[in-house]
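User: Can you help me understand a structure? I only have the sequence.
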Amino acid sequence: DSSVNINNHKRVNTIFIKSGSSIHRTVIDDILFLEKDGNYMTYHTKGNKILARESINEALEKLPQQNDNKL
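Assistant: Let's start by predicting it. Here is the structure, written out as tokens:
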């Protein structure tokens, strides 16, 4: 469970997505949907697309169960 406490003391759930040699900290609520293509998963977010080499199961393990409908 990854979360960060921001200035207004609201809890924001985040996940970490490895893309190549970079690691992206992404707010779960900013993820619009996930797209699978071969060995890669694309996380479509409000302002970005993050390409990660991972399985569907690996992606689902990062997300809380209520967000499974984003696949």
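Now, to help you interpret it: The first strand starts at residue 2 and ends at 5. The chain has one helix and six strands. Let me know which part you'd like to focus on.
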